[in-house]
Amino acid sequence: MPAMVVSNAGPGAAKKFEGKITIYVVICGIIAATGGLMFGYDIGISGGVTSMDDFLEEFFPVVYERKHKAKEDNYCKFDNQNLQLFTSSLYLAALVASFVASKVCTKHGRRLTMQAASIFFLVGVILNAAAVNIAMLIIGRILLGVGVGFANQAVPLFLSEIAPVHIRGALNILFQLDVTIGIFVANIVNYLVSNIHPWGWRLALGLAGVPASMLCLGSMVIAETPTSLIEREMLMEGLAMLKKIRGTDNVDAEYEEILHACEMARQVKQPFKNLMKRSSRPQLVIAIVMQVFQQFTGINAIMFYAPVLFQTIGFKNDASLLSAVITGIVNVLSTVVSVVLVDKVGRRFLLLEACGQMLITQVAIGGILLVNLKATNELGHGVAVWVVVLVCLFVSSFAWSWGPLGWLIPSETFPLATRTAGYAFAVSSNMLFTFVIAQAFLSMMCHLRAGIFFFFGAWIVVMGLFVIFFLPETKNVPIDEMTEKVWKQHWFWKRFIDEEETKKHSI
Ligand code: BGC
Protein backbone atom coordinates (compact mmCIF):
# COMPACT_ATOMS: atom_id res chain seq x y z
CA MET A 1 0.00 0.00 0.00
CA PRO A 2 1.67 3.24 -1.08
CA ALA A 3 1.75 5.94 1.56
CA MET A 4 2.56 9.56 1.04
CA VAL A 5 4.60 11.14 3.74
CA VAL A 6 4.92 14.87 3.71
CA SER A 7 8.33 16.19 4.39
CA ASN A 8 9.27 19.81 4.40
CA ALA A 9 12.84 19.59 5.50
CA GLY A 10 15.85 20.47 3.48
CA PRO A 11 16.31 23.83 1.96
CA GLY A 12 12.90 25.24 1.34
CA ALA A 13 9.97 23.52 -0.24
CA ALA A 14 7.64 20.87 0.99
CA LYS A 15 8.28 17.45 -0.56
CA LYS A 16 6.45 14.18 -0.69
CA PHE A 17 8.01 10.78 -0.10
CA GLU A 18 6.23 7.92 -1.72
CA GLY A 19 6.88 5.14 0.72
CA LYS A 20 5.60 1.69 -0.23
CA ILE A 21 6.16 -1.16 2.12
CA THR A 22 7.80 -3.54 -0.33
CA ILE A 23 8.33 -7.24 0.25
CA TYR A 24 12.00 -6.60 -0.39
CA VAL A 25 12.30 -4.12 2.46
CA VAL A 26 10.48 -6.46 4.80
CA ILE A 27 12.70 -9.40 3.87
CA CYS A 28 15.87 -7.34 4.29
CA GLY A 29 14.55 -6.20 7.65
CA ILE A 30 13.79 -9.72 8.81
CA ILE A 31 17.20 -11.01 7.73
CA ALA A 32 19.17 -8.16 9.28
CA ALA A 33 17.25 -8.46 12.50
CA THR A 34 18.73 -11.94 13.02
CA GLY A 35 21.66 -9.99 14.48
CA GLY A 36 19.33 -9.49 17.43
CA LEU A 37 19.00 -13.27 17.82
CA MET A 38 22.72 -13.56 18.58
CA PHE A 39 22.52 -10.87 21.22
CA GLY A 40 19.38 -12.30 22.76
CA TYR A 41 20.62 -15.87 22.81
CA ASP A 42 23.67 -14.74 24.72
CA ILE A 43 21.67 -12.81 27.26
CA GLY A 44 19.47 -15.81 27.91
CA ILE A 45 22.01 -18.58 27.84
CA SER A 46 24.55 -17.41 30.40
CA GLY A 47 22.08 -17.32 33.30
CA GLY A 48 21.01 -20.89 32.57
CA VAL A 49 24.51 -22.22 32.10
CA THR A 50 25.77 -20.55 35.26
CA SER A 51 23.07 -22.28 37.26
CA MET A 52 23.90 -25.75 35.86
CA ASP A 53 25.73 -28.04 38.26
CA ASP A 54 27.98 -29.68 35.65
CA PHE A 55 29.21 -26.31 34.48
CA LEU A 56 29.74 -24.96 37.99
CA GLU A 57 31.53 -28.12 39.13
CA GLU A 58 33.96 -27.92 36.21
CA PHE A 59 34.76 -24.20 36.22
CA PHE A 60 33.49 -22.69 39.48
CA PRO A 61 33.79 -25.37 42.17
CA VAL A 62 33.55 -22.80 44.96
CA VAL A 63 30.13 -21.65 43.81
CA TYR A 64 29.08 -25.25 43.33
CA GLU A 65 29.98 -26.07 46.93
CA ARG A 66 28.21 -23.03 48.26
CA LYS A 67 25.07 -23.61 46.23
CA HIS A 68 24.68 -27.03 47.75
CA LYS A 69 25.18 -26.00 51.35
CA ALA A 70 21.66 -25.90 52.72
CA LYS A 71 22.49 -23.20 55.22
CA GLU A 72 23.99 -20.75 52.76
CA ASP A 73 22.35 -17.32 52.76
CA ASN A 74 19.62 -17.19 50.08
CA TYR A 75 20.64 -13.83 48.76
CA CYS A 76 24.36 -14.64 48.57
CA LYS A 77 24.85 -18.16 47.32
CA PHE A 78 25.72 -17.17 43.75
CA ASP A 79 27.84 -14.15 44.65
CA ASN A 80 31.18 -14.82 42.95
CA GLN A 81 33.19 -12.29 40.98
CA ASN A 82 34.58 -14.85 38.51
CA LEU A 83 31.17 -16.27 37.78
CA GLN A 84 29.89 -12.76 37.12
CA LEU A 85 32.91 -12.08 34.95
CA PHE A 86 31.88 -15.00 32.74
CA THR A 87 28.56 -13.28 32.09
CA SER A 88 29.83 -9.75 31.88
CA SER A 89 33.11 -10.05 29.91
CA LEU A 90 31.05 -10.14 26.74
CA TYR A 91 29.69 -6.67 27.38
CA LEU A 92 33.08 -5.09 28.01
CA ALA A 93 34.32 -6.45 24.70
CA ALA A 94 31.19 -5.23 22.93
CA LEU A 95 31.68 -1.79 24.44
CA VAL A 96 35.10 -1.36 22.88
CA ALA A 97 34.07 -3.09 19.65
CA SER A 98 31.18 -0.73 18.99
CA PHE A 99 33.59 2.18 18.40
CA VAL A 100 35.57 0.16 15.89
CA ALA A 101 32.31 -0.99 14.35
CA SER A 102 31.20 2.60 13.89
CA LYS A 103 34.22 3.27 11.66
CA VAL A 104 33.70 0.04 9.73
CA CYS A 105 30.03 0.95 9.30
CA THR A 106 30.85 4.33 7.79
CA LYS A 107 33.79 3.23 5.63
CA HIS A 108 32.62 -0.19 4.49
CA GLY A 109 28.89 -0.13 4.99
CA ARG A 110 26.29 -1.63 7.30
CA ARG A 111 26.24 -4.96 5.48
CA LEU A 112 29.92 -5.76 5.81
CA THR A 113 29.79 -4.79 9.47
CA MET A 114 27.06 -7.39 9.96
CA GLN A 115 29.13 -10.03 8.17
CA ALA A 116 32.13 -9.28 10.37
CA ALA A 117 29.86 -9.55 13.41
CA SER A 118 28.77 -13.05 12.52
CA ILE A 119 32.33 -14.26 11.93
CA PHE A 120 33.64 -13.01 15.28
CA PHE A 121 30.65 -14.53 16.91
CA LEU A 122 31.12 -17.93 15.29
CA VAL A 123 34.74 -18.17 16.44
CA GLY A 124 33.63 -17.23 19.96
CA VAL A 125 31.00 -19.95 19.91
CA ILE A 126 33.53 -22.62 18.95
CA LEU A 127 35.86 -21.63 21.79
CA ASN A 128 33.02 -21.61 24.30
CA ALA A 129 31.51 -24.93 23.34
CA ALA A 130 34.93 -26.61 23.37
CA ALA A 131 36.19 -24.89 26.54
CA VAL A 132 38.36 -26.93 28.86
CA ASN A 133 39.47 -24.06 31.09
CA ILE A 134 38.32 -20.63 32.21
CA ALA A 135 40.65 -18.88 29.76
CA MET A 136 38.90 -20.50 26.79
CA LEU A 137 35.56 -19.59 28.26
CA ILE A 138 36.44 -15.95 28.79
CA ILE A 139 38.27 -15.47 25.46
CA GLY A 140 35.34 -17.09 23.70
CA ARG A 141 32.96 -14.73 25.42
CA ILE A 142 35.11 -11.75 24.48
CA LEU A 143 34.86 -12.74 20.82
CA LEU A 144 31.12 -13.13 21.18
CA GLY A 145 31.16 -9.64 22.64
CA VAL A 146 32.98 -8.24 19.61
CA GLY A 147 30.34 -9.88 17.44
CA VAL A 148 27.56 -8.36 19.49
CA GLY A 149 29.22 -4.93 19.42
CA PHE A 150 29.41 -5.05 15.61
CA ALA A 151 25.90 -6.39 15.14
CA ASN A 152 24.24 -4.03 17.58
CA GLN A 153 25.93 -1.12 15.87
CA ALA A 154 25.00 -2.07 12.33
CA VAL A 155 21.60 -3.73 12.56
CA PRO A 156 19.43 -1.00 14.15
CA LEU A 157 21.02 1.65 11.91
CA PHE A 158 20.43 -0.53 8.87
CA LEU A 159 16.80 -1.02 9.80
CA SER A 160 16.14 2.67 10.47
CA GLU A 161 17.77 3.64 7.19
CA ILE A 162 15.93 1.24 4.91
CA ALA A 163 12.52 1.78 6.50
CA PRO A 164 9.87 4.01 4.94
CA VAL A 165 9.28 6.72 7.54
CA HIS A 166 5.79 5.70 8.61
CA ILE A 167 6.88 2.20 9.65
CA ARG A 168 10.39 3.03 10.82
CA GLY A 169 9.56 2.25 14.44
CA ALA A 170 8.00 -1.09 13.61
CA LEU A 171 10.80 -2.18 11.29
CA ASN A 172 13.49 -1.14 13.73
CA ILE A 173 11.80 -3.06 16.52
CA LEU A 174 12.29 -6.28 14.53
CA PHE A 175 15.78 -6.12 16.02
CA GLN A 176 14.45 -6.11 19.56
CA LEU A 177 11.87 -8.75 18.61
CA ASP A 178 14.73 -10.99 17.60
CA VAL A 179 16.56 -10.16 20.82
CA THR A 180 13.56 -11.41 22.77
CA ILE A 181 13.16 -14.50 20.57
CA GLY A 182 16.87 -15.22 21.14
CA ILE A 183 16.40 -14.95 24.91
CA PHE A 184 13.32 -17.15 24.76
CA VAL A 185 14.99 -19.86 22.68
CA ALA A 186 17.97 -19.76 25.04
CA ASN A 187 15.62 -20.25 27.99
CA ILE A 188 14.09 -23.30 26.34
CA VAL A 189 17.51 -24.67 25.49
CA ASN A 190 18.61 -24.15 29.10
CA TYR A 191 15.56 -26.04 30.24
CA LEU A 192 16.05 -28.94 27.83
CA VAL A 193 19.79 -29.41 28.25
CA SER A 194 19.86 -29.10 32.01
CA ASN A 195 19.18 -32.83 32.19
CA ILE A 196 21.89 -33.83 29.72
CA HIS A 197 24.90 -34.71 31.83
CA PRO A 198 27.70 -33.80 31.86
CA TRP A 199 27.87 -31.86 28.57
CA GLY A 200 24.46 -30.16 28.33
CA TRP A 201 26.08 -26.77 28.89
CA ARG A 202 28.36 -27.31 25.87
CA LEU A 203 25.35 -27.86 23.68
CA ALA A 204 23.72 -24.75 25.11
CA LEU A 205 26.76 -22.59 24.33
CA GLY A 206 27.36 -24.23 20.95
CA LEU A 207 23.85 -23.61 19.66
CA ALA A 208 24.67 -19.89 19.60
CA GLY A 209 26.29 -20.80 16.27
CA VAL A 210 22.85 -21.11 14.68
CA PRO A 211 21.82 -17.43 14.77
CA ALA A 212 25.36 -16.41 13.85
CA SER A 213 25.28 -18.62 10.75
CA MET A 214 21.88 -17.20 9.86
CA LEU A 215 23.24 -13.66 9.97
CA CYS A 216 26.36 -14.67 8.09
CA LEU A 217 24.43 -16.22 5.20
CA GLY A 218 21.64 -13.64 5.33
CA SER A 219 23.95 -10.66 5.15
CA MET A 220 25.28 -11.95 1.83
CA VAL A 221 21.90 -11.58 0.18
CA ILE A 222 20.46 -8.39 1.65
CA ALA A 223 20.75 -4.89 0.25
CA GLU A 224 23.09 -2.20 1.48
CA THR A 225 21.21 0.90 2.64
CA PRO A 226 20.91 3.66 0.02
CA THR A 227 22.29 6.08 2.61
CA SER A 228 25.44 4.06 3.09
CA LEU A 229 25.96 3.68 -0.68
CA ILE A 230 25.48 7.38 -1.32
CA GLU A 231 27.64 8.26 1.67
CA ARG A 232 30.42 6.20 0.06
CA GLU A 233 29.89 8.04 -3.23
CA MET A 234 28.19 5.19 -5.06
CA LEU A 235 25.43 7.51 -6.21
CA MET A 236 23.95 5.44 -9.01
CA GLU A 237 23.86 2.29 -6.92
CA GLY A 238 22.31 4.26 -4.08
CA LEU A 239 19.57 5.64 -6.31
CA ALA A 240 18.86 2.24 -7.81
CA MET A 241 18.66 0.67 -4.38
CA LEU A 242 16.33 3.37 -3.15
CA LYS A 243 13.98 2.69 -6.08
CA LYS A 244 14.16 -1.02 -5.40
CA ILE A 245 13.40 -0.86 -1.69
CA ARG A 246 10.66 1.74 -2.12
CA GLY A 247 9.10 -0.12 -5.06
CA THR A 248 8.71 3.05 -7.13
CA ASP A 249 10.75 5.26 -9.45
CA ASN A 250 9.39 8.32 -7.76
CA VAL A 251 12.09 8.66 -5.13
CA ASP A 252 13.60 11.99 -6.14
CA ALA A 253 12.61 13.84 -2.99
CA GLU A 254 14.03 11.21 -0.69
CA TYR A 255 17.14 10.82 -2.84
CA GLU A 256 17.78 14.54 -2.69
CA GLU A 257 17.36 14.55 1.01
CA ILE A 258 19.86 11.72 1.48
CA LEU A 259 22.24 13.47 -0.90
CA HIS A 260 21.91 16.66 1.11
CA ALA A 261 22.55 14.76 4.34
CA CYS A 262 25.63 13.13 2.76
CA GLU A 263 27.00 16.48 1.65
CA MET A 264 26.64 17.83 5.14
CA ALA A 265 28.23 14.66 6.49
CA ARG A 266 31.18 14.97 4.12
CA GLN A 267 32.01 18.38 5.51
CA VAL A 268 32.44 16.78 8.87
CA LYS A 269 35.89 15.27 8.81
CA GLN A 270 35.94 13.99 12.35
CA PRO A 271 32.53 12.77 13.42
CA PHE A 272 33.65 11.96 16.96
CA LYS A 273 35.02 15.47 17.43
CA ASN A 274 31.85 16.89 15.98
CA LEU A 275 29.83 14.92 18.45
CA MET A 276 31.48 16.82 21.26
CA LYS A 277 30.14 20.13 19.94
CA ARG A 278 27.24 21.78 21.73
CA SER A 279 24.97 21.29 18.74
CA SER A 280 25.29 17.51 19.04
CA ARG A 281 24.49 17.62 22.75
CA PRO A 282 20.74 16.89 22.48
CA GLN A 283 21.10 13.69 20.43
CA LEU A 284 24.16 12.54 22.33
CA VAL A 285 22.59 13.01 25.74
CA ILE A 286 19.40 11.28 24.66
CA ALA A 287 21.30 8.36 23.08
CA ILE A 288 23.36 7.73 26.19
CA VAL A 289 20.62 8.37 28.70
CA MET A 290 18.12 6.10 26.93
CA GLN A 291 20.55 3.23 27.19
CA VAL A 292 21.63 3.90 30.75
CA PHE A 293 18.01 4.10 31.82
CA GLN A 294 17.17 0.97 29.86
CA GLN A 295 19.65 -0.93 31.98
CA PHE A 296 18.60 0.72 35.25
CA THR A 297 15.10 -0.60 34.82
CA GLY A 298 16.73 -3.72 36.25
CA ILE A 299 15.67 -5.84 33.28
CA ASN A 300 18.90 -7.76 33.10
CA ALA A 301 18.82 -8.68 36.72
CA ILE A 302 15.93 -10.78 35.49
CA MET A 303 17.13 -11.74 32.01
CA PHE A 304 20.56 -12.95 33.04
CA TYR A 305 19.75 -14.33 36.37
CA ALA A 306 16.12 -15.42 36.10
CA PRO A 307 16.96 -19.07 36.80
CA VAL A 308 19.27 -18.02 39.62
CA LEU A 309 16.69 -15.56 40.94
CA PHE A 310 13.94 -18.12 40.89
CA GLN A 311 16.17 -20.61 42.67
CA THR A 312 16.89 -17.93 45.23
CA ILE A 313 13.21 -17.63 46.07
CA GLY A 314 12.94 -21.38 46.46
CA PHE A 315 12.12 -22.99 43.11
CA LYS A 316 13.97 -26.20 42.32
CA ASN A 317 16.28 -26.30 39.27
CA ASP A 318 13.69 -27.36 36.71
CA ALA A 319 10.93 -25.14 38.03
CA SER A 320 13.18 -22.13 38.00
CA LEU A 321 14.26 -22.70 34.41
CA LEU A 322 10.64 -23.22 33.46
CA SER A 323 9.70 -19.91 35.05
CA ALA A 324 12.41 -18.29 32.97
CA VAL A 325 10.78 -19.81 29.87
CA ILE A 326 7.48 -18.21 30.90
CA THR A 327 9.03 -14.76 31.27
CA GLY A 328 10.68 -15.36 27.90
CA ILE A 329 7.32 -15.88 26.17
CA VAL A 330 5.90 -12.77 27.81
CA ASN A 331 8.93 -10.82 26.60
CA VAL A 332 8.44 -11.88 22.95
CA LEU A 333 4.68 -11.34 22.84
CA SER A 334 4.87 -7.94 24.48
CA THR A 335 7.48 -6.82 21.97
CA VAL A 336 4.95 -7.54 19.22
CA VAL A 337 2.66 -5.04 20.97
CA SER A 338 5.36 -2.47 20.49
CA VAL A 339 5.82 -3.29 16.79
CA VAL A 340 2.11 -2.66 16.30
CA LEU A 341 1.79 0.47 18.43
CA VAL A 342 5.02 2.41 18.19
CA ASP A 343 4.24 4.33 15.01
CA LYS A 344 0.66 4.94 16.11
CA VAL A 345 0.71 5.98 19.76
CA GLY A 346 4.29 7.22 19.65
CA ARG A 347 7.43 6.64 21.66
CA ARG A 348 6.66 8.83 24.66
CA PHE A 349 3.34 7.22 25.46
CA LEU A 350 4.85 3.72 25.54
CA LEU A 351 7.76 4.82 27.71
CA LEU A 352 5.59 6.61 30.25
CA GLU A 353 2.98 3.87 30.55
CA ALA A 354 5.80 1.42 31.15
CA CYS A 355 7.36 3.56 33.88
CA GLY A 356 4.12 3.32 35.84
CA GLN A 357 3.79 -0.43 35.36
CA MET A 358 7.44 -1.15 36.09
CA LEU A 359 7.46 0.96 39.22
CA ILE A 360 4.42 -0.79 40.69
CA THR A 361 5.75 -4.26 39.94
CA GLN A 362 9.29 -3.61 41.22
CA VAL A 363 7.98 -2.20 44.48
CA ALA A 364 5.56 -5.11 44.86
CA ILE A 365 8.29 -7.72 44.26
CA GLY A 366 10.60 -5.92 46.69
CA GLY A 367 7.81 -5.75 49.29
CA ILE A 368 6.96 -9.45 49.00
CA LEU A 369 10.57 -10.53 49.29
CA LEU A 370 11.21 -8.14 52.17
CA VAL A 371 8.41 -9.64 54.20
CA ASN A 372 8.69 -13.26 53.16
CA LEU A 373 12.23 -14.19 52.14
CA LYS A 374 14.74 -14.31 54.94
CA ALA A 375 18.32 -15.54 54.73
CA THR A 376 17.67 -19.26 54.85
CA ASN A 377 13.98 -19.99 54.30
CA GLU A 378 12.11 -20.64 51.06
CA LEU A 379 9.10 -18.73 49.78
CA GLY A 380 5.83 -20.59 50.05
CA HIS A 381 4.56 -21.89 46.72
CA GLY A 382 1.70 -19.40 46.46
CA VAL A 383 3.93 -16.42 47.15
CA ALA A 384 6.57 -17.63 44.71
CA VAL A 385 3.93 -17.88 41.99
CA TRP A 386 2.93 -14.27 42.71
CA VAL A 387 6.55 -13.22 42.28
CA VAL A 388 6.63 -14.91 38.87
CA VAL A 389 3.38 -13.15 37.85
CA LEU A 390 4.81 -9.79 38.92
CA VAL A 391 8.05 -10.47 37.09
CA CYS A 392 5.99 -11.19 33.95
CA LEU A 393 4.10 -7.91 34.31
CA PHE A 394 7.38 -6.10 34.74
CA VAL A 395 8.95 -7.79 31.73
CA SER A 396 5.93 -7.07 29.52
CA SER A 397 6.03 -3.35 30.17
CA PHE A 398 9.77 -3.24 29.53
CA ALA A 399 9.28 -5.19 26.32
CA TRP A 400 6.95 -2.70 24.69
CA SER A 401 8.90 0.34 25.80
CA TRP A 402 12.43 0.75 27.10
CA GLY A 403 13.63 -2.48 25.46
CA PRO A 404 12.94 -1.59 21.83
CA LEU A 405 12.98 2.17 22.21
CA GLY A 406 16.39 2.17 23.83
CA TRP A 407 17.66 1.02 20.43
CA LEU A 408 15.19 2.78 18.17
CA ILE A 409 15.43 6.35 19.42
CA PRO A 410 19.24 6.73 19.23
CA SER A 411 19.20 5.19 15.74
CA GLU A 412 16.79 7.77 14.36
CA THR A 413 17.78 11.06 15.97
CA PHE A 414 21.34 11.78 14.81
CA PRO A 415 22.01 13.61 11.55
CA LEU A 416 23.95 11.46 9.09
CA ALA A 417 27.19 13.33 9.82
CA THR A 418 27.33 11.96 13.33
CA ARG A 419 24.99 8.97 13.03
CA THR A 420 27.37 6.03 13.26
CA ALA A 421 29.66 7.78 15.75
CA GLY A 422 26.72 8.87 17.88
CA TYR A 423 25.15 5.48 17.73
CA ALA A 424 28.43 3.93 18.87
CA PHE A 425 27.99 5.91 22.10
CA ALA A 426 24.52 4.49 22.47
CA VAL A 427 25.70 0.90 21.93
CA SER A 428 28.70 1.29 24.19
CA SER A 429 26.67 2.91 26.97
CA ASN A 430 24.27 0.02 26.76
CA MET A 431 27.14 -2.42 27.00
CA LEU A 432 28.84 -0.55 29.82
CA PHE A 433 25.74 -0.52 31.97
CA THR A 434 24.79 -4.06 31.02
CA PHE A 435 28.28 -4.96 32.22
CA VAL A 436 27.78 -3.04 35.44
CA ILE A 437 24.50 -4.80 36.17
CA ALA A 438 25.82 -8.21 35.12
CA GLN A 439 28.91 -7.80 37.24
CA ALA A 440 27.25 -6.26 40.26
CA PHE A 441 23.78 -7.73 40.47
CA LEU A 442 24.59 -10.88 42.42
CA SER A 443 26.72 -8.94 44.89
CA MET A 444 24.10 -6.21 45.14
CA MET A 445 21.47 -8.82 45.86
CA CYS A 446 23.72 -10.25 48.55
CA HIS A 447 24.10 -6.83 50.22
CA LEU A 448 20.89 -4.95 49.45
CA ARG A 449 18.71 -8.08 49.57
CA ALA A 450 15.10 -7.32 48.69
CA GLY A 451 16.13 -3.64 48.65
CA ILE A 452 17.59 -4.18 45.19
CA PHE A 453 14.09 -3.94 43.75
CA PHE A 454 13.49 -0.58 45.47
CA PHE A 455 16.81 0.60 44.08
CA PHE A 456 15.61 -0.07 40.53
CA GLY A 457 12.21 1.42 41.41
CA ALA A 458 13.85 4.73 42.32
CA TRP A 459 15.56 4.82 38.93
CA ILE A 460 12.26 4.28 37.20
CA VAL A 461 10.89 7.45 38.81
CA VAL A 462 13.89 9.40 37.50
CA MET A 463 13.45 8.06 33.98
CA GLY A 464 9.75 8.88 33.93
CA LEU A 465 10.52 12.49 34.80
CA PHE A 466 13.20 12.59 32.14
CA VAL A 467 10.78 11.44 29.46
CA ILE A 468 8.18 13.99 30.52
CA PHE A 469 10.54 16.94 30.32
CA PHE A 470 13.34 16.07 27.94
CA LEU A 471 12.39 13.40 25.44
CA PRO A 472 10.83 14.74 22.23
CA GLU A 473 8.45 12.64 20.15
CA THR A 474 10.05 11.30 16.96
CA LYS A 475 7.13 9.32 15.54
CA ASN A 476 6.61 9.90 11.80
CA VAL A 477 9.46 12.39 11.42
CA PRO A 478 11.75 11.51 8.47
CA ILE A 479 15.16 10.47 9.73
CA ASP A 480 17.04 13.24 7.96
CA GLU A 481 14.71 15.97 9.22
CA MET A 482 15.10 15.50 12.94
CA THR A 483 17.15 18.63 13.52
CA GLU A 484 14.56 20.90 11.92
CA LYS A 485 11.45 19.21 13.12
CA VAL A 486 12.43 17.87 16.50
CA TRP A 487 15.45 19.48 18.09
CA LYS A 488 14.85 23.03 16.90
CA GLN A 489 11.29 22.82 18.20
CA HIS A 490 11.98 21.42 21.66
CA TRP A 491 11.60 23.84 24.60
CA PHE A 492 14.90 22.79 26.16
CA TRP A 493 17.10 21.34 23.43
CA LYS A 494 16.52 24.10 20.87
CA ARG A 495 18.92 26.41 22.69
CA PHE A 496 21.82 24.10 21.78
CA ILE A 497 21.02 24.11 18.07
CA ASP A 498 20.10 27.79 17.93
CA GLU A 499 23.21 28.97 19.74
CA GLU A 500 25.38 27.03 17.34
CA GLU A 501 23.60 28.56 14.35
CA THR A 502 23.87 32.05 15.83
CA LYS A 503 27.57 31.50 16.36
CA LYS A 504 28.01 30.36 12.73
CA HIS A 505 26.27 33.43 11.43
CA SER A 506 28.24 35.86 13.54
CA ILE A 507 31.60 34.58 12.25
C1 BGC B 1 18.37 -4.90 26.22
C2 BGC B 1 18.93 -6.08 26.90
C3 BGC B 1 17.81 -6.87 27.53
C4 BGC B 1 16.78 -7.23 26.52
C5 BGC B 1 15.60 -7.92 27.15
C6 BGC B 1 17.37 -5.35 25.22
O1 BGC B 1 16.84 -4.26 24.58
O2 BGC B 1 19.39 -4.14 25.61
O3 BGC B 1 19.88 -5.66 27.83
O4 BGC B 1 18.30 -8.03 28.11
O5 BGC B 1 16.34 -6.09 25.85
O6 BGC B 1 14.64 -8.28 26.21
TrEMBL record:
<feature type="transmembrane region" description="Helical">
    <location>
        <begin position="349"/>
        <end position="371"/>
    </location>
</feature>
<keyword id="KW-0813">Transport</keyword>
<feature type="transmembrane region" description="Helical">
    <location>
        <begin position="383"/>
        <end position="409"/>
    </location>
</feature>
<dbReference type="InterPro" id="IPR036259">
    <property type="entry name" value="MFS_trans_sf"/>
</dbReference>
<keyword id="KW-0812">Transmembrane</keyword>
<dbReference type="Pfam" id="PF00083">
    <property type="entry name" value="Sugar_tr"/>
</dbReference>
<feature type="transmembrane region" description="Helical">
    <location>
        <begin position="199"/>
        <end position="223"/>
    </location>
</feature>
<feature type="transmembrane region" description="Helical">
    <location>
        <begin position="112"/>
        <end position="132"/>
    </location>
</feature>
<feature type="domain" description="Major facilitator superfamily (MFS) profile">
    <location>
        <begin position="28"/>
        <end position="475"/>
    </location>
</feature>
<feature type="transmembrane region" description="Helical">
    <location>
        <begin position="171"/>
        <end position="193"/>
    </location>
</feature>
<dbReference type="InterPro" id="IPR020846">
    <property type="entry name" value="MFS_dom"/>
</dbReference>
<keyword id="KW-0472">Membrane</keyword>
<dbReference type="GO" id="GO:0016020">
    <property type="term" value="C:membrane"/>
</dbReference>
<feature type="transmembrane region" description="Helical">
    <location>
        <begin position="284"/>
        <end position="308"/>
    </location>
</feature>
<dbReference type="GO" id="GO:0015145">
    <property type="term" value="F:monosaccharide transmembrane transporter activity"/>
</dbReference>
<dbReference type="InterPro" id="IPR044778">
    <property type="entry name" value="MFS_STP/MST-like_plant"/>
</dbReference>
<feature type="transmembrane region" description="Helical">
    <location>
        <begin position="320"/>
        <end position="342"/>
    </location>
</feature>
<keyword id="KW-1133">Transmembrane helix</keyword>
<dbReference type="InterPro" id="IPR003663">
    <property type="entry name" value="Sugar/inositol_transpt"/>
</dbReference>
<feature type="transmembrane region" description="Helical">
    <location>
        <begin position="83"/>
        <end position="100"/>
    </location>
</feature>
<comment type="similarity">
    <text>Belongs to the major facilitator superfamily. Sugar transporter (TC 2.A.1.1) family.</text>
</comment>
<keyword id="KW-0762">Sugar transport</keyword>
<protein>
    <recommendedName>
        <fullName>Major facilitator superfamily (MFS) profile domain-containing protein</fullName>
    </recommendedName>
</protein>
<feature type="transmembrane region" description="Helical">
    <location>
        <begin position="21"/>
        <end position="41"/>
    </location>
</feature>
<feature type="transmembrane region" description="Helical">
    <location>
        <begin position="138"/>
        <end position="159"/>
    </location>
</feature>
<dbReference type="InterPro" id="IPR005828">
    <property type="entry name" value="MFS_sugar_transport-like"/>
</dbReference>
<dbReference type="GO" id="GO:0015293">
    <property type="term" value="F:symporter activity"/>
</dbReference>
<dbReference type="InterPro" id="IPR045262">
    <property type="entry name" value="STP/PLT_plant"/>
</dbReference>
<dbReference type="InterPro" id="IPR005829">
    <property type="entry name" value="Sugar_transporter_CS"/>
</dbReference>
<keyword id="KW-0769">Symport</keyword>
<feature type="transmembrane region" description="Helical">
    <location>
        <begin position="421"/>
        <end position="442"/>
    </location>
</feature>
<feature type="transmembrane region" description="Helical">
    <location>
        <begin position="448"/>
        <end position="471"/>
    </location>
</feature>
